[in-house]
Specification:
Neuraminidase; five-stranded antiparallel beta sheet
Length: 419
């Protein structure tokens, strides 16, 4: 009997000690602040910090002095968005305001984009803002093969065209400005296209070896660019009419200029063009090529393959995605990536964000996950390929940073889950 009583008293003592310790810990963890009341001036000197970011979101923290009185705070928020984009998002925290503010923003992050983040709190008669923090995402969540490079200086205007010369990607704008894409997504200024006074609406371009061959629709002349020395040379007249839109491409060391009615073949030894064929096709809106074949996309978004033996075009497939007046394309290995169909001009201005992969051997299509960033004014958008990556380049006139260079990494490709 005594043994049972002894056990009962020991247990009672443990319970009492545990309760007492819990009360003491609670008192230590939540001391009553004895310092000054928080002010806008104080909060304005604080800056949010990025604690972590992963598939669960962006974890943002801001630390306030432990003795600061915060009982006057009614609510606090985090405002964030991409720098240069007016569309910002504000999230009001559901947690009580405390000396350690941690907020997880469960939203998508896009590789290469720079975000600005500001914290704020409201009292009964004012709203106070912190210092703004800046953060560049090194990965995308959800996962995406796209990563942005932002060129903050002024580049070109009007339309653009991409060209791969000796496995190096280049981009030319309608005002003659010319750039190489280096270090994955960095634009490197090159000697501009030399046609003085060129309005440069469109260019026909093909590449053979280290040279790119350019014809502006403002001139009948052919200009050759040396990618090793960054120099241009006027090779004289092509005898192909000016003020007409042509496309270009090369196969097996032979260059071609073509539109929806005529095809011309270039003799590199004699620097002459010969009409190879004439035909009637729907208007061409884009072109792409592999090492051994040329392709065009017509206004019905049909993909046609070039037949070099007769200079004509043969039907290959039809783009299965959303359709509009223009579309972007580039090639990696023997697969074409086609999408972002759009109409730039108002009225009925539209941009679609779906992209598809076309296997040029099997003619099978696969839909990729949608492009990760919604742009509003992708004027002059074009695509180009390098040995390891594809690129999409455009200017966004609604942004503070006019030129975006999006690198496509095929090793991180994500296909859309079909229902």
């Amino acid at each position: 009997m005594k043994k049972k009583v002894f056990v009962y008293h020991v247990i009672s003592m443990i319970l009492l000690l545990t309760t007492f310790a819990s009360c003491e810990n609670s008192k230590d963890e939540n001391p009553v602040p004895k310092g000054p009341q928080i002010t806008c001036e104080y909060f304005g000197n604080l800056k949010p910090s990025i604690l972590d970011y992963n598939a669960n979101g962006l974890n943002i923290g801001i630390k306030i002095d432990a003795d600061m009185q915060i009982d006057n705070v009614k609510s606090y928020e985090i405002t964030y968005g991409v720098i240069g984009n007016d569309k910002k998002r504000t999230i009001q925290s559901l947690k009580p305001f405390s000396n350690n503010l941690n907020t997880i923003i469960a939203d998508s992050l896009v590789c290469g984009l720079e975000y600005e983040i500001t914290a704020s709190f409201s009292t009964s008669n004012s709203t106070c803002l912190s210092t703004t923090e800046y953060f560049t995402s090194q990965k995308s969540y959800p996962a995406s093969p796209w990563c942005a490079g932002i060129f903050k200086a002024s580049t070109g205007y009007d339309r653009s065209a991409g060209i791969t010369i000796n496995n190096k990607p280049f981009i030319i704008f309608g005002n003659n400005s010319f750039y190489g894409i280096e270090n994955q997504s960095v634009l490197s200024s090159k000697l501009p296209f030399p046609l003085h006074g060129n309005s440069g609406t469109d260019y026909a371009i093909f590449a053979i070896g280290k040279y790119g061959y350019f014809k502006s629709d403002d001139s009948a002349n052919l200009y050759r660019y040396d990618s090793d020395t960054d120099n241009w040379e006027n090779l004289g007249s092509t005898n192909i009419a000016a003020y007409a839109k042509y496309y270009g491409g090369s196969m097996n060391g032979i260059g071609y200029f073509f539109d929806n009615r005529n095809c011309y073949q270039y003799d590199i030894q004699n620097n002459t063009f010969t009409k190879l064929a004439n035909y009637q096709q729907q208007e061409f809106i884009n072109t792409f090529q592999t090492n051994s074949n040329l392709y065009v996309i017509n206004k019905d978004l049909e993909i046609l393959q070039f037949n070099s033996s007769n200079g004509n075009w043969e039907y290959l497939s039809t783009y299965p995605g959303n359709k509009s007046e223009d579309i972007v394309s580039f090639v990696y290995m023997n697969k074409a990536y086609i999408g972002l169909s759009h109409r730039y001009y108002s009225p009925n201005k539209v941009t679609n964000y779906d992209i598809y992969e076309l296997d040029l051997d099997t003619k099978n299509w696969k839909q990729l996950a949608s492009f990760p960033y919604k742009f509003s004014d992708a004027w002059g958008i074009s695509g180009v390929s390098s040995q390891n990556n594809g690129y999409i380049i455009y200017r966004d006139e609604s942004s503070d940073f006019p030129t975006y260079v999006w690198r496509f990494n095929p090793s991180e490709i994500v296909y859309k889950k079909m229902p």
